[in-house]
Automatic annotation (TrEMBL):
<protein>
    <recommendedName>
        <fullName>CRAL-TRIO domain-containing protein</fullName>
    </recommendedName>
</protein>
<dbReference type="Pfam" id="PF00650">
    <property type="entry name" value="CRAL_TRIO"/>
</dbReference>
<feature type="domain" description="CRAL-TRIO">
    <location>
        <begin position="1"/>
        <end position="128"/>
    </location>
</feature>
<dbReference type="InterPro" id="IPR001251">
    <property type="entry name" value="CRAL-TRIO_dom"/>
</dbReference>
<dbReference type="GO" id="GO:1902936">
    <property type="term" value="F:phosphatidylinositol bisphosphate binding"/>
</dbReference>
<dbReference type="InterPro" id="IPR036865">
    <property type="entry name" value="CRAL-TRIO_dom_sf"/>
</dbReference>
<dbReference type="GO" id="GO:0016020">
    <property type="term" value="C:membrane"/>
</dbReference>
Length: 181
């Protein structure tokens, strides 16, 4: 249901999953992200705020505390090419080369089949079973994430001349709220 989609919540969920995995398993050589877009329609994309998308991309490029190996967008609709061309200016060359869109699922060369859900031909649990287990793990870490949300930067200690988010991301908001004099 596109009316319930919140891009900021999706970015936070991604961060929470990576954080929880690293806390439980320790560091690794990197992550290959497989995102199944089955059920995603253009309405989901239209609800995404461009500033939020830009912040999410910057987080992945500059602040993610592990290495990304690849990003596979599986069951990507025909609109995905237009979306990629829209966000391409925010992506650095390295990230552009990591993103792979698949209309149907074709096994990525850099992901062993035993790492994929049974929905894609492995002997692992199904996508739904893995998702349910992941939600349970996140709930086990709920107190940690609640506390983490209370940590904020003391902007009074920011060095003079340092970069602020408004310098990076430009004007806050969306075109829906644009006022013209």
């Amino acid at each position: 249901d596109p009316s319930r989609f919140d891009v900021n919540a999706q970015i936070k969920l991604f961060d929470m999953c990576v954080t929880q995995w690293l806390m439980k398993n320790g560091t690794c050589e990197g992550f290959a992200v497989v995102c199944d877009l089955k059920g995603v329609v253009l309405g989901h994309i239209l609800r995404a705020n461009l500033t939020s998308i830009k912040r999410g991309i910057m987080y992945v490029q500059e602040a993610l505390f592990t290495r990304l190996i690849s990003i596979h967008l599986v069951n990507a609709g025909s609109y995905m090419d237009r979306i990629m061309s829209m966000i391409r200016p925010f992506l650095n060359e390295e990230l552009i080369n990591m993103v792979h869109c698949h209309q149907n699922f074709t096994l990525p060369k850099d992901i062993p089949v035993e790492c994929l859900p049974s929905d894609y031909g492995s002997l692992q649990p199904s996508f739904q079973e893995l998702q349910d287990a992941n939600i349970k793990r996140l709930m086990d870490y709920a107190e940690y994430f609640r506390n983490e949300d209370t940590y904020i930067a003391d902007e009074t200690k920011r060095a003079v001349g340092s970069v602020k988010t408004t310098d990076i991301f430009g004007v806050e908001g969306s075109f829906k709220k644009l006022d013209i004099d």
